Amino acid sequence: MLKISTKARYSVRAVFDMAYHNAGEPSRVREISERQGISARYLEQIFQSLRRGGILKSRRGPHGGYYLSRSLSEIKVADVIRAAEGSLVRSFKAGRRKKMELPITEVYLSKEVWQEVERVVEERLEEIDLETLCEKGRQAGLPSELEKKVMYFI
């Protein structure tokens, strides 16, 4: 069974949170941490990787924070995982098994199968962008902090 790493999952959750709740405005780590239930210290580490990977930028000061470096439609889930982990393949972990001697045909077939799985997963993650995720969140009725920030003037 393939499992996605915690760092990759948290990276996607945090970037989605920024896109969905702040619409391009700088986001504070503390706010994302509270909404997502992720340690602020761990988020800071993840954000450094995402900044180096070109997904995020940062701004200092009282109105500062982290913000997305490109438009929502330009940032793919695959890009986020690559920035966080260095590669898509490294973000997936196979279930733990004891090392044992396997017949060469089983090794070959197993390798072929996993390479195909990785290829299909990578292709799919390349198709999903933040804009699509945000739209699906709205359709699902996911509450947004943006709705709370809107002011009406009479």
What would your notes on this structure say?
This protein is mainly alpha-helical and 154 residues long. The protein has a single domain (2-149), classed as Winged helix-like DNA-binding domain superfamily/Winged helix DNA-binding domain (Arc Repressor Mutant, subunit A). It is 56% helix and 9% strand. It is built from seven helices and four strands. It has helices spanning 6-22, 29-36, 40-52, 77-85, 104-127, 130-139, 145-149; strands at 2-4, 56-59, 65-68, 92-94. The strands form two sheets. A two-stranded antiparallel ribbon has the order 1-4. A two-stranded antiparallel ribbon has the order 2-3. β2 (56-59) and β3 (65-68) form a beta hairpin. The chain is elongated and about 60 Å long. The model has no long low-confidence stretch (mean pLDDT 85).
Summarize the model shown:
The chain has 154 residues and is mostly helical. Helices cover 56% and strands 9% of the residues.
| Amount of beta strand | 5-15%
Rough outline? elongated
The unreliable regions are: none
Provide the residue-averaged pLDDT: 85
Q: How many strand units?
A: 4
Can you tell me the number of structural domains?
Answer: 1
Level-1 CATH class name: Mainly Alpha
Distance between the termini: 57 Å
Sheet with most strands: strand arrangement: 1-4
Rounded to the nearest angstrom, the radius of gyration is 19 Å
- Examine the secondary-structure arrangement and name the CATH architecture: Orthogonal Bundle
CATH homologous superfamily classification: Winged helix-like DNA-binding domain superfamily/Winged helix DNA-binding domain
| Discrete helix count | 7
> Structural class of the secondary structure composition?
mainly alpha
CATH third-tier fold name: Arc Repressor Mutant, subunit A
Helix content: 55-70%
Succession of helices and strands: EHHHEEHEHHH
Report on the biggest sheet: 2 strands, antiparallel
